[in-house]
Amino acid sequence: MDKEVVMKPASLVATIFLALISLGHLLRLVLQVEVTAGGIIIPMWLSAVACFFTGGLAIMLWTEIRRK
Question: What is the pLDDT of residues 7-59, one digit of tens each?
């Protein structure tokens, strides 16, 4: 018997949003894009931390909403 997975729309949107943010940080790291906010250069290591953090949250949310 197949178990049908029903995802809540808000959880799905949050998962996609977190994954896109993580992908953006990953692209910044790969392409070595310099980001300046308010005259301060944002270090690359901060994007590495943000990439792992948001990617981890996306994966945890994805697994939780698929588990029943």
Answer: 678 888 999 999 999 999 999 999 999 999 999 999 999 999 999 999 999 99
Tell me if the pTM is above 0.70: yes
CA dist list (Å): 60 to 4, 16, 39, 40, 42: 20, 12, 35, 32, 27
Side-chain half-sphere exposure of 43, counting CA atoms within 13 A: 3
Type of residue found at 24: G
The two structure tokens encoding residue 38: 């308010």
Residues 10 and 56: their CA atoms lie apart, in Å, by 18
What's the one-letter identity of residue 41? I
Q: List 41's β-bridge partners, or say none.
A: 36
